[in-house]
Amino acid sequence: xxxxxxxxxxxxxxxxxxxxxxxxKKPVARVWAAGTGEARVEEVRLAWVRLPEAQEEPGxxxxxxxxxxxxxxxxxxxxxxxxxxxxxxxxxxxxxxSRGDEILATSWHGGAPFQELLAEEGAASHLxxxxxxxxxxxxxxxILPAAGDGRLVxxxxxxxxRLLDRAGVLRLDL
Length: 174
Hints:
Layout: H1 2-6, E1 9-13, E2 16-21, E3 28-36, E4 42-50, E5 56-58, E6 62-69, E7 72-77, E8 83-89, E9 93-99, E10 102-107, E11 114-120, E12 126-131, E13 136-145, E14 169-170
Parallel strand pairs: 5-7, 11-14
Antiparallel strand pairs: 1-2, 2-3, 3-4, 6-13, 7-12, 8-11, 8-13, 9-10, 9-12
């Protein structure tokens, strides 16, 4: 099955996983939900979500707020150069950083709302937002030029310290 081969990037949450393919002819997301039943037997549910093709939108520097309604995709073309992305997504939403159709990173928290700060060196050309369920969910995307080397690198010889102005997820380079 060639659609399985296209699902090249994954993200995991508590008891869940998400695989995404941005193939322009067949964008798709696969969601796995696992739980423990009363008899301690693992139960796994798989949903295959066929998403509409996203129209490309300019993703200029600054804040982009909006809503994702129903099964939806929004694809932002990112400005060139190193940047920091501050992302806040509502329930049932995920984000995918890509260079063309090649997926570089997937952000998803098992369908729960989340905020994430991504330091990006300019390898990605697009950020695609996915909404994987009925109803609506708000999103906020802030695209900032990187101020120097803002990446946090985890090293054995030095502690990593950073004061954050809000709750969310921060990725570390290992």
